[in-house]
TrEMBL record, chain A:
SUPFAM superfamilies: Ammonium transporter (SSF111352)
Bilayer topology term: Multi-pass membrane protein
Organism: uncultured Nocardioides sp
Protein's name according to its UniProt entry: Ammonium transporter
Gene Ontology MF, one: ammonium channel activity
Length: 448, 112
């Protein structure tokens, strides 16, 4: 028991680290140099807002009792009636709410008003995430996805990744494309940040997946036995799926585009972790590798869809989190074993189509719930305070426009020349030269 | 006097410098620059999206030499910087009106 509590404190800190700073670094490196600070700020401010809101009503909506969509929102208001000995569970769930909201930010890079994000974040958490967390994680008898449908979701394939992925897609459609997309250069400005962020996400994910163990009232020896055997399984599955997804992504990339890239490896890490999130407790090692490979390969292909379908999901939240989340959640229906946490056999182990059906229904509910409610919130904001940054501010750079800062001093004498500004000043071959990448600092350049 | 300006591939820079030193060139100005010629940059792929990067990194060398040495210096640069592939760069020679050494005020040939 003592060991479990100690572990949960560490796991909670690990999951908070996934947002601040891991996700911020992962996204920040992929964004342009003129918008990296805003990209990172969206994660940081989401943590602050959602964290306080979660303690206020989030825990109560999720865990105060039964309910199809959510429990009593005011019963445990501001943790009234929750023992401090249980705070660690509140904090753990809080970090899940935080990262789910922060994940969305990657889709809206460069162009969403900071004020609109600050209003969107609490509304979305309240209306979409808190109910979804109840439906999936509280797993009361009436809770829709876990209790009624009986879909397995160990750590949040539906509640976190599908949820954030769908919300990202809806928000992108309401917000529109960035100016110049897809014709202009919008290369990642610093892939070392992205590699670092992906590695930290992976590290934090052990808190996310392994910490998601739920007990069924075991005590004493039985408790310890369950704790040790299940965390061993989820830790190993999380690790192997990620390895497989790196290879899957790189393989597809090598075949489709000729080169295995560092961004591909970083993206493979995240795709694999996303896909194994719902399945970490349900599958054996072979299943984990299969799910990781499938997620890596499918996501590597899916990130290209935005160009064909014409939606500017800037940092591929849809291609990685929605697709990876769906892959992992559905494949539970194939690779789940009755020895796992859910005690259900999937298609491959003679369990028939029952599990697959429940998983598919769980996915459908998550997609529809998140899609419809995000659209309502997004539309309401677009019609009132507005979502979109002013066009001139967008071209000059959102860091300067919204935060009054620039991330890098690219105009000092020591960094001029090919290793400094000019090397990143790129233009599409087909259009006249314009300083896309250095746009944010051009006004300084004139004065310097 | 002549100003020899050479724009070459970065990976040939060390060899060119050595050859010029062996020849006896007293000094030069070197900068990292970006640009493009016939090769028109290169392509980079990020998550499947191809980007044409128009500007590629180059090294620019500027040397002021006696009229008599200009042809030899150009020859050395061309010989050592050449790989035979597109993007090797260019060398050009321009006339220099006068040169002053800042430290001493010496002029022209004695300032080189």
């Amino acid at each position: 028991m003592d060991g479990y509590y100690a572990f949960m404190l560490v796991a909670t800190a690990l999951v908070l680290m996934m947002t601040v700073p891991a996700l911020a670094l992962f996204y920040g490196g992929m964004s342009r140099s003129k918008s990296v600070l805003n990209m990172m700020m969206m994660s940081y401010v989401a943590a602050a807002i959602v964290g306080i809101l979660y303690v206020a009503v989030g825990w109560s909506m999720g865990w105060s009792g039964d309910g199809t969509l959510f429990a009593d929102p005011v019963d445990l208001l501001w943790l009234d009636g929750v023992a401090t000995g249980d705070y660690v569970y509140v904090m753990f769930q809080m970090t899940f709410a935080i990262i789910t909201v922060a994940l969305i930010s990657g889709a809206v890079a460069d162009r969403m008003k900071f004020s609109a994000w600050v209003v969107f974040v609490p509304l979305w958490a309240l209306v979409v995430y808190f109910p979804m967390a109840h439906m999936v994680f509280s797993c009361t008898d009436d809770s829709l996805i876990c209790g009624r449908i009986g879909a397995q979701d160990y750590a949040g394939g539906t509640a976190v990744h599908i949820n954030a992925g769908v919300a990202a897609l809806v928000l992108v459609l309401l917000l529109g494309k960035r100016i110049g997309w897809p014709k202009d250069q919008m290369r990642p400005h610093n892939l070392t940040l992205t590699m670092l962020g992906a590695g930290l996400l992976w590290f934090g994910w052990y808190g996310f997946n392994v910490g998601s163990i739920v007990f069924a009232g075991e005590e004493g020896e039985a408790f310890t036995e369950r704790f040790i055997s299940e965390t061993g399984r989820t830790f190993a599955n999380t690790t192997l799926a990620t390895f497989a997804a790196i290879l899957g992504w790189l393989l597809v990339e090598r075949l489709l585009h000729g080169k295995a890239t560092s961004l591909g490896a970083a993206s493979g890490i995240v795709a694999g972790l996303v896909a194994i999130t719902p399945a970490a407790g349900a599958v054996d090692l072979g299943g984990a590798v299969a799910i990781g490979l499938a997620a890596g390969a499918l996501c590597a292909w899916a990130v290209g869809l935005k160009f064909r379908l014409g939606f500017d999901d800037s940092l591929d939240v849809v291609g990685v989190h929605l697709v990876g989340g769906v892959v992992g959640t559905l494949l539970i229906g194939v690779f789940s074993t009755s020895e796992g946490a859910g005690g259900v056999d999937g298609l491959l182990y003679g369990g028939g189509l029952g599990s697959l059906g429940a998983q598919a229904l769980g996915v459908l509910v998550a997609v529809v719930f998140s899609g419809v409610l995000t659209a309502v919130i997004g539309l309401a904001l677009r019609l009132t305070i507005g979502l979109r940054l002013d066009a001139e501010d967008e071209v000059d750079g959102i860091d300067l426009a919204e935060h009054g800062e620039t991330a890098y001093d690219l105009h000092s004498a020591s960094s001029s020349g090919a290793t400094g500004v000019l090397a990143t000043s790129t233009v599409p071959a087909s259009t006249p030269p314009r300083t896309t990448t250095t746009g944010s600092t051009s006004s300084e350049g004139v004065n310097a | 006097m002549k100003l020899v300006t050479a724009v070459i591939k970065p990976h040939r820079w060390e060899d060119v410098r050595e050859a010029l030193e062996t020849f006896g060139v007293a000094g030069m100005t070197v900068s990292e620059v970006s640009g493009y010629g016939r090769q028109k940059g290169h392509t980079e792929v990020y998550r499947g999206a191809e980007y044409d990067v128009a500007l590629v990194p180059k090294i620019r060398i500027e040397i002021v030499v006696d009229d008599a040495d200009a042809e030899d210096v150009v020859g050395i640069v061309v010989k050592t910087a050449q790989t035979g592939r597109i993007g090797d760069g260019k060398v050009w020679v321009t006339h220099v009106e006068s040169v002053v050494r800042v430290r001493t005020g010496e002029q022209d040939a004695s300032a080189l």
